[in-house]
Amino acid sequence: MPESRIALRKLAAAAIIAAGACLVTAILVLGSDDKSATGRDFIQYWALEKQLAQGANPYDAVAILRIERAVGMDKPGVLISLSPPVAFAYALPLGWVSAKTGLVMWMLLLLACLGASVWMLWLLHGRPESRWHVIGLGFPPALWCLIAGQLGIFFLLDIVLFLYFIRRRPWLAGAALVLCALKPHLFLPCAVVLVLWSVRRREIGVLSGFASALAVSCGLTLWLDPQVWRQYVQMMRASRIMDQFLPTVSVGLRFMVDRRAHWIEFVPEAAACIWAAWYFLKRRARWEWGREGLLVLLAGVAFSPYSFYSDQAVLFPAVLVGLYASEKSVGALVLFGVIAGAGLVGFVAQIPMSSLYYMWTAPAWLVWYLYVMQKAGAKVGAGQGADQSTEVAAG
Fold first, then answer.
1. Which of 176, 231, 257, 370 shows the smallest number of beta carbons within 10 Å?
2. pLDDT score of 385
3. pLDDT digits (tens, 9 = 90+) for 131-177
4. Inter-CA distances, 22 with 27, 36, 42, 207, Å
5. Which residues, at least 6 apart from 254, have a Cβ–Cβ distance to it below 8 Å?
């Protein structure tokens, strides 16, 4: 194809993207008000940043409730973030704007991160002609993130950036994982393997990149509020989050055995960490983060002691690998349709993410991935296109 036609196609694609972005922005601006923010989990992040911008306690439940009520929230109780204070400084601009403006900014950022993730996954797989990657734009957990203003899409971008940089830019790959520290319980098995992988390869780039980014991130938050960690501990003690029922295998196990024995929730994740270490040691000579690493990620989310359906947005890289591996398997594609379709039904019907309805979905993705990769002989992985993608990045 002549270079002029290629340039023209790129220009047309850029114009379409720009027009789409302008349309979405206009819809959000004209269709939103402060009250719109109160129906989403986003309100807790906005209220937290309001407190932080004023130099006040971002975990003060009374103050957070007052801020949320002031913009029209009529839900019972207070919505307060349970995330540790490791990256709050990055969202500080939310504390300087109204709830409506903050919501528009947040939604546009989520859309941009989702689009970037899907595009980089396409590069990682070697720019295939098939369009399986486009499913990411309608992946049900990602749709829930967009509607609720949840963090799962940020975690998805972190994982994709890690896969994108791991071969040629290990320091950047580690630094890209910093936002995963907002919900570390989702990634503990991956963290165990990452340490073992780094030790075996005598590669400190990934760990030093993560540690450096985390130190800067925490340092900025501490500069804004030197007491923030003490305030976080106090809030967690008062939240009684462990007494709530959440749609996870771990919580279900505790409620079946002894709902007062909170330690039971951590048994599945501990087992997942032990299995992940064994799995890595068994396959260390041929380890691929875009294949075996995604299986560990699936296990971490499936057996996390605390998660919601929107957190499963981070699983799309594994789902995409499974889709490429199952292109010629009708049964595997049907199973994918069942799992994704159930999530889409929950989204359309607005079944709350705290519902028992979603308890099976994360384990289902894990089982589906194992089934697909076994049938495909584990010959497909996101890491196989990484050389091409990193060459693009280097260029």
1. 257
2. 46
3. 889 999 999 999 999 988 899 999 999 999 999 999 999 999 999 99
4. 9, 20, 22, 39
5. 261, 262, 264, 265
Tokens of 119: 């595009």
Q: Diameter of the chain by CA atoms?
A: 69
Return all residues near 249 (Cβ < 8 A) that are at least 6 apart: 268, 302, 303, 359, 362, 363
φ/ψ of residue 57, rounded to 5: -70, 115
Asked whether the beta carbons of 240 and 153 are under 8 A apart, the reply is no
Cα separations (Å) of 381 from 134, 158, 188, 194?
A: 17, 18, 22, 18
**List of E strands, 171-330:** none
Tokens of residue 13, six digits: 């694609």
Residues 158/113, Cβ–Cβ less than 8 Å: no
| Cα distance from N-terminal residue to C-terminal residue, the chain | 22
For 127: left if phi > 0, alpha if psi spans -120 to 50, otherwise beta; the answer is: left
| Cα dihedral 159, 311, 275, 283 sign | negative
d(CA 368, CA 17): 34
Candidates 256, 161, 171; CA nearest to 209 is 171
Who contacts 146 (Cβ-Cβ below 8 Å, separation ≥6)?
Answer: 107, 110, 111, 114, 153
Which runs of consecutive H residues, i.e. helices, occur in 284-385? 292-302, 316-325, 330-348, 361-376
In whole angstroms, give the CA distance from residue 310 to residue 291.
22
pLDDT of residue 389: 39
Q: What is the pLDDT of residues 31-50, one digit of tens each?
A: 455 667 787 889 999 999 99
Q: Which two tokens stand for residue 346?
A: 């929950």
Q: Name residue, tokens 């949840």.
A: 150
Q: How far, in Å, CA of 19 to CA of 25, rounded?
A: 10
Tell me which DSSP letter residue 114 carries: H
pLDDT category of residue 8 using cuts at 50, 70 and 90: low
Q: What SS3 state is found at 85?
A: coil
Residue 316 has, within 13 A of its CA and on its CB side, a CA count of: 34
The highest-confidence range among 77-86, 245-254, 272-281, by mean pLDDT, is 272-281
Q: Is the pLDDT of residue 23 over 50?
A: no
**Per-residue model confidence as pLDDT tens digits over 246-265:** 888 888 888 888 888 888 88
